[in-house]
């Protein structure tokens, strides 16, 4: 069993400026490019937590609330919310910053699941995540419900076995 690790040890910050090649025809960052950046930031976070190769197992809902215009600076912050047996849930928050105007807004958030694998691609155990703050505790607790929901949607868990989900719906 790998040694537990605190969440702050793997926090990952990735920063990039939106350039013309990154944009859609309206001059805003293209959604697919942002998803790629979120996947990379999340994967680095997960790798730092487990010191292993990781693969993306799933990406939960990504909503594009505000466009990120050309010339703005995108900052992605990846943080482990919970480590299960071989998988880790990572939350990636995205901020858009207009440096000359002095404004910074949160534009997106997504939960991604990564699985640690060995050289042959077989899942391998990951360290537990040590909770140190109230915010980390809330994300840790809710991770069980998100896990059940995504495993039900992926056809990997029967709805009647989703016990944490049942409790919030009083079933
Ligand atoms: C993810 C992967 C390693 C799982 O392999 P598997 O043989 O199904 O392994 P298991 O059934 O033992 O599951 C391993 C872990 O993955 C998790 N998992 C599997 N599918 C999942 C999904 N759709 N969403 C979230 N987690 C998932 C399981 O819950 C389990 O987590 P746990 O050990 O913490 O409980 C395998 O499906 C894979 O390699 N997928 C392709 C990954 C990839 O190439 N990603 C890039 C896409 S281009």
TrEMBL record:
Belongs to the acyl coenzyme A hydrolase family. Keywords: Hydrolase. Signal peptide: none annotated. This is Acyl-CoA thioesterase. PROSITE patterns: HOTDOG_ACOT. One of its GO terms (molecular function) is fatty acyl-CoA hydrolase activity. Its EC number is 3.1.2.20.
């Amino acid at each position: 069993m790998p040694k537990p690790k605190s969440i702050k040890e793997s926090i990952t910050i990735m920063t990039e400026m939106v350039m013309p090649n990154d944009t859609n025809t309206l001059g805003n960052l293209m959604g697919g490019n942002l998803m790629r950046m979120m996947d990379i930031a999340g994967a680095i976070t997960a790798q730092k937590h487990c010191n292993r190769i990781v693969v993306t197992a799933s990406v939960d809902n990504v909503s594009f609330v505000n466009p990120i215009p050309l010339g703005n600076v995108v900052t992605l912050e990846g943080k482990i919310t919970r480590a299960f047996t071989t998988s880790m849930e990572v939350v990636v928050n995205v901020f858009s910053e207009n440096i000359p105007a002095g404004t910074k807004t949160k534009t997106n958030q997504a939960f991604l699941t990564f699985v640690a694998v060995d050289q042959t691609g077989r899942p391998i155990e990951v360290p537990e995540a040590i909770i140190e703050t109230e915010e980390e505790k809330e994300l840790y607790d809710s991770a069980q419900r998100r896990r059940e929901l995504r495993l039900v949607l992926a056809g990997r868990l029967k709805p009647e076995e989703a016990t944490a989900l049942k409790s919030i719906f009083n079933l």
